[in-house]
Design goal:
The protein has no helices and ten strands. A hairpin with a 2-residue loop joins β6 and β7.
Length: 123
Amino acid sequence: TDNPPLQRQTPNTFNLMPTYTLGRFFGSSGLSYNGPNINSYNWQLGQAGGIKGPFGDVYVYPHTEVDAQVKMRITPSVSVQFNGLNLINEPFGFYQGSPQYDIQREYYSPTYELGLRFTWPRE
């Protein structure tokens, strides 16, 4: 009798990715947001606790992530690159019915990568 949203389809999402290039330097950062969305249906009509209670549907918490990349070309065939992922240390998780009924939280530290890239010159 209700009109539930589609699973894993958030009504609010956005990505913002400014970039900058100057000569041998390239930099970019990314901001990504996914609003809360339904992960699985659990609530049934007449069930105790109601749709927003501890036996309601399972939702994914809203998630905001910031990533960045910096790259510098040293020679035409050698470059150095640095990547940073989840720079604001945003947790991920699920709740049931409403956010006060937490069922899972996952904490990931920021990830950093440093690389040296070699390319063969084309003939």
